[in-house]
Amino acid sequence: AERTTALEASLRAAREEIKELRARSAAMTPATVLAKNRERAARLEARLEAEEAKSAGLRRHLEKAERELARYEHEAAKGDYNPATTKVLHLKMNPAARARAQRTQDAAARELAALREENEQLKKELQQQKANTSSDGNTSIMHHSNELNSSRLEGSSGVDSSKLNQRLKEMFKEQIARFREAVYLLFGYKLDMGGAHARPKLRLRSMFAENESDDLLFQWGKGGLELCETDFATKIDRKVFVYLHQCNSVPAFLSNVTLNLFEAQTFQG
Q1: What is the span of the domain harbouring residue 49?
Q2: Are 255 and 185 in contact (CB under 8 A)?
Q3: Same domain membership, residue 116 and residue 45
Q4: Does one domain contain both 63 and 115?
Q5: Does any domain span residue 54?
Q6: Which of 82, 133, 142, 157, by CA, is between 20 and 30 Å from 246?
């Protein structure tokens, strides 16, 4: 910028000198003086043109430098840097990353503790439900018996027996479906019963099962329920079978299977 200012001052001085020479040449009549002044004026004009060209080049260079400076300032404001002149250090133990990882671990630990507490509560409820099964079953049987007696009374009063039988079938079907849905929602297992009447088989499929074919099969034996071999049963952790073989508790075994499947879906899905 200082050099440009100096050039402009030099140009102004040259212009003033040309004006002065032209004024002098106009006042002087001798041809030799006039020719000499014209020659000098031509040299000055050539010098002036050269200086103007040089000044224009300097202006272009200055404008280019200003544009590059503005671009560098813009990139610096965005956080860009030149890898050749700037080195970025990455912390091996980044405090922010460690804090995020710790928060994730704490949240997982809290959720796992809550699930274990819920599992214990489910075990207690399952034991209580098992204790109340006989009394509830008797109540349900008495309820259906009363409905059946009422239906018989209606039949003796002239009501169509076929319609009564159809109604009874629908009532039993609805009651069984409602009971199966309650078992599924409360304990997480879809229950299907089949096989011989003396030794029926119970097929259970968890709501957290990964595949449709992942099921457990129990058969009614003399000593209670016996676990039959299935593809899914062979994949269960051997530690879970402690509840079944050593503790002789089917509810505890099923609860742990449910918890393991739930954890697999929650923390790995």
Answers
A1: 15-81
A2: no
A3: no
A4: no
A5: yes
A6: 133
The enclosing H or E element of 226 equals strand 224-228
In a domain, 36, yes or no: yes
Structural domain includes residue 5: no
- Report which DSSP code applies to 192: E
How far does Cα 80 stand from its chain's mean position? 29
Stated pTM of the model:
0.39
Q: What is the mean pLDDT of residues 8-30?
A: 74
Place of tokens 């039949």: 155
Which pair of structure tokens corresponds to residue 225? 């329920």
Burial of 57 (0-12, 13-18, 19+ CB in 10 A): exposed
The total domain count for the chain is: 3
Instruction: Give the whole-angstrom CA distance, residue 136 versus residue 185.
Output: 18
- Which residues, at least 6 apart from 198, have a Cβ–Cβ distance to it below 8 Å? none
CATH number at residue 242: 3.30.457.60
Output the six-digit token pair for 8.
């402009």
Which of 6-15, 79-88, 231-240 has the largest mean confidence? Answer: 231-240
192 inside domain: yes
| Confidence check: pLDDT of 144 > 60 | no
Contact 203, 215 (CB under 8 A): yes
Question: What angle separates helix 31-78 from helix 2-27, to the nearest 10 degrees?
Answer: 160
**Residue 134 reports pLDDT greater than 50:** no
194 and 235 in a single domain? The answer is yes
pLDDT at residue number 93: 58
pLDDT (tens digit per residue) in 149-162: 555 545 444 556 77
